[in-house]
Amino acid sequence: MQFKHPEILWALFLLVIPVIIHLFQLRRFTKTPFTNVAMLQKVVSESRKSNSLKKWLLLFTRLLLLAAIIIAFAQPFTAMVTALKEKETMVYLDDSFSMQAKDNGLTLLEKAVQDLIKNLDAETNFSFFTNERTFADIRIKDIQNMLLSLPYSSKQLTLDEIGLKASTLFSTSNATTKNLIIISDFQQRMISDGASMDSTQNTYLVPLRARETQNVAIDSVFLEDGTTDQESLGVLLSGGSEDGNLPISLYNGQDLIAKTAAKFSANGTAKVVFSIPSNQEINGRLSILDNGLGYDNSFYFNINAKEKIKVVAVTGSDSDYLDRLYTNDEFELKKFTLNQLDYSVLDGQNVVLLDNLKAIPNNLQSVLRTFRDNGGTLIIAPSLESDLSSYNTLLSSLEATRYMDTVTAASQVTSIAYGHPLYHNVFESEVANFQYPTVKEHFKMQSRLPKILSLEGGDAFLWGGDGLYVFSASLEQENSNFKNSPLIVPTFYNMAHSSLQAPGLYHTLGSTSSIDITANLGNDDILQVSKEGYEFIPLQQAFPNRVRLTFDQNPTEDGIYAIQQNGRSLKNISFNYPRKESQLQYLDVDNLPYTTTQDSIASLFDRLEADSNITAYWKWFVILALLLALIEVIIQKFVT
């Protein structure tokens, strides 16, 4: 038993006073003459014994009465050790898209919010955070309206991130009990290898589960090769059942332009192909009706008018291979010999290719440096008879690159940097049996650029990155068969395409992406990105003939956005939420260390309340004191 005011118990020593008074009380008896005392001796003896018993009963009753009153004022109680410590309560509520799953007509998020409002004490201070929002030291009534209108988030914190964030919100005091409550459906992707919660915290897990765990999602779209009049739009879906067909609709803006049904395979995936007109701008939206999650039932994409990439080739020999690589449907190719080149032509170009030049004049070097500074892409393939000093004068100022000695021994390309951005999505896997090109002579080189293609022995055949690509050997037929190699197509095509980052069919929210917009900005001009009811200004870098936009934190909503300059729409761009939440696969939370699992929010708060309960006994001592007072009255009246 413990006492709220133990200092009052010192008053128990006062009980000694009535004991002393009782033991040392002096009574004087008056002698009264009587004619015959002998007959009264027996009566006096019995009267004294009765009186002594009554006094002892009264003494003990009064001592117990005073002791009961003193103990009552000291307020005795019993409680668990944790009940006496100050509590810090932290609540994490998962508001990710997977919480759109329904249970008895309510989404998991709606049900969790209602249970929190119902079970949290209105006067209890706690901290609260979701995947994107944080509230410290608040009461439930302070955020009730916010909770009832809480939107879903495309972000999902892992258990490690939840524990780390809670640690920053908890105080550093060791004298408090720290309770972390995690309310989620606990998708498998919430846990990482070796994840473990902080053992100094009491972590309570409340897993929420939907009745229906099947969810159909539109995963991606892509263009396939079609005829001159029609293109094929491929759509991939997942999560369906093999025994059913799911209708899927294709819209251009608000107009329905096609509709079909998706037939799922045994593994739950499906592919649907729509025929769409070629060379037509489309602001597309794909839509399905599914009883699972709602966020992945729509998919946005757009097809803009194709913008040709401007390529200038300055050549010292026949360069017909460039006409086959840079065709008129995607590129605007101009070829010049060095004597024919008007340097002003380079203004506004995206790519400059120096092919088989014996030397690079100083004036051209100056123009090319300015061209690179303005974001242009420069490709250099030397000649067997190159004046290396003129090449090195230019290259030394560009990524510290320089040509060195000539190697006359024949060599073969033996290594491809598959992870280089130039070959992104070119190879499905690393190729074992590949027809690699050969060279008869090449130059040893030094560069800060990464190697893209390497020769046997470790020398580089192609260096490149960030708009500069340099070959170490001449590409002429008498020196190399690279022009006949399958590698030449993706290599030159992607080098040119990297110069102008056109918007893709769609982009994914939360992932950093960059696009180039052909526009000339004034000193105070900026590009804005907007859709109905939502507008923002992205990070932008202006070049003489284009603007590079970078998207990272914005936008936060999916949809089709217009890129505008002074109110004029230049191009459209689409964003979709990542599909990581679409697969409803859950963790076995019972096996997570340093955690306690509860079936529901209500049972959790019942447990926390029981752990904090204090049983007080002062009322019982007051009742005991009243009973003792009554006993004293009875003794006084009936004991003689």
UniProtKB/TrEMBL annotation:
<keyword id="KW-0472">Membrane</keyword>
<feature type="domain" description="Aerotolerance regulator N-terminal">
    <location>
        <begin position="1"/>
        <end position="76"/>
    </location>
</feature>
<keyword id="KW-0812">Transmembrane</keyword>
<keyword id="KW-1133">Transmembrane helix</keyword>
<feature type="transmembrane region" description="Helical">
    <location>
        <begin position="617"/>
        <end position="635"/>
    </location>
</feature>
<dbReference type="Pfam" id="PF07584">
    <property type="entry name" value="BatA"/>
</dbReference>
<dbReference type="InterPro" id="IPR024163">
    <property type="entry name" value="Aerotolerance_reg_N"/>
</dbReference>
<protein>
    <submittedName>
        <fullName>N-terminal double-transmembrane domain-containing protein</fullName>
    </submittedName>
</protein>
<feature type="transmembrane region" description="Helical">
    <location>
        <begin position="56"/>
        <end position="77"/>
    </location>
</feature>
<feature type="transmembrane region" description="Helical">
    <location>
        <begin position="6"/>
        <end position="24"/>
    </location>
</feature>
<dbReference type="InterPro" id="IPR011933">
    <property type="entry name" value="Double_TM_dom"/>
</dbReference>
